[in-house]
Amino acid sequence: MNRRNFCSHAVSAAAGTALGNTADNSGPGTARYPAAGALFRDVRRYRKIDAHEHVGLGGTVDDQLKMADRLGIEKMVISKPVTVESRTAVTPEEFRKGNDLVLEAMKQHPDRYLGLVHINPYFPKESLEEIRRCTDRGMAGLKVYYQVKINDPLFFPIIEKAIDLKMILLVHSHCGIGVGGRLTQYGNIQPNASVPEDFADAARRYPEAMFQYAHLGGGGDWEYALKTIRDFPNIYADTSGSNNEAGIVDYACRMLGEDRLFFGTDSSYYQGVGAILSSGLNDAQRKKIFFTNFNEILRKSGRHVS
Q: The sheet that has 141-144: what strands, in order across it?
């Protein structure tokens, strides 16, 4: 266990577990978690856009939509990243194939899915062509993994295209950040993944761009990350991830402000919803994080939810 108090750590995890055990607001879960019934009733009070989700990475589309229905998630922002370490390993053919899966899901469920174009900046010409192809077919933003750091010059044409399109750029953040920003041994697995300082450098270079710092709940020292990016108003953060320590959402709101946070799950559905419901935020703040903030980003490019 890290330096944070174990009991505090358990709160948001328990909230997610409680939601999972009372999905229909009945049954044995209600007895196990006496407050869970009221907690789950709160789920449907809020419109939700899941700003960080995938398709084709486990489970079927039908299973995913059933989970979204259960938790009142109106829209899911999806991508199909290809998780290979080498810069050159994710070829244009591979990221086109992944994007085709997203386009098909959007076609089958246009009222539920918003797509993000996945590309590899190591191939700038092909990436720009793919951005054009996919945005012409309705995709709403860009998604990159960890083949190239966000402040690498290879990334600059991609960032500039996102600016032209008035679209957000969702970037996989490094999950191996230890206390105080030191890279843990896990950091060796993703040598090209972007760390908070890389986000700050890119945001300083391109203040008109919009960057989404991925999965605060993905592990690592989220306090350090938030302190590093807080002075850059064009960096937003999503709350997704499976390491849901209590206090992440409240602390993120204090560091970044309530307008720079997005609700996300990254497939940790109950934990993602539970982390916000178990926070100390007020009703208006929860509405912003669950729905309004990301919808305002979509509005810039005319792809907002009605």
A: 49-54, 75-79, 113-118, 141-144, 169-171, 211-213, 235-238, 261-262
